[in-house]
Amino acid sequence: MEKTSFAQGEWLKNNARSTTLPFNRILVSPYQRALETFEQVNLAFDSALQPHLEIWEGITPYGSAELVIDYLSVQEKESVDSVLLISHLPLVGEIVAELYGKRNPISFYPATIAQIGWQDGKGEIMSYSYPPEML
Question: Which InterPro entries does its entry note (predicted)?
């Protein structure tokens, strides 16, 4: 798992749109696997993500996608324009479906990464990456 998590971090780092730290907020589930994933992704970013970390009970596996969208809307109003979400299945698929408009064009497997542009209540999938073993 550590190798996959670190690779996720490298992918995020290499595909970030700007040369500065691309995340204003990092939301991580309190479950052990999500915390371990954050640790590895943070290492890929030379430990620069820690100050932006928020551990949130709302993104556990059977959390509410609607609640997450509401929370992201609040973040947007507070000028948070880029959020990294480290969560679990099935919730991440449900969140993407909500952001994208109820139909999810991405199959989610463990370690799937999706970059979604969200503006005016509409989501657009910018890029995504599957773990190598799923290809």
Answer: His_Pase_superF_clade-1 (IPR013078), His_PPase_superfam (IPR029033), SixA (IPR004449)
Q: Burial of 91 by CB count in 10 Å (0-12 exposed, 13-18 middle, 19+ buried)?
A: buried
Please give the Cα distance from 68 to 70 (Å, whole number).
5
Please check whether residue 133 is in contact with residue 8, taking contact to mean a CB–CB distance below 8 angstroms: no
Q: What is the 8-class DSSP label of residue 134?
A: G
Strands 83-86 and 113-119: unpaired
Task: Give the H or E element holding residue 117.
Answer: strand 113-119
Q: List own/partner pairs for 65-72 with CB under 8 A and 24 or more apart.
A: 65/91, 65/94, 65/95, 65/97, 65/98, 66/98, 68/95, 68/98, 69/95, 69/98, 69/99, 72/118
Rounded-to-integer distance, Cα 87 and Cα 59, Å = 6
Q: What domains are there in the chain, each with its CATH number?
A: 2-134 (3.40.50.1240)
Q: What tens digit of pLDDT does each residue of 49-106 get?
A: 999 999 999 999 999 999 999 999 999 899 998 999 999 999 999 999 888 887 777 8
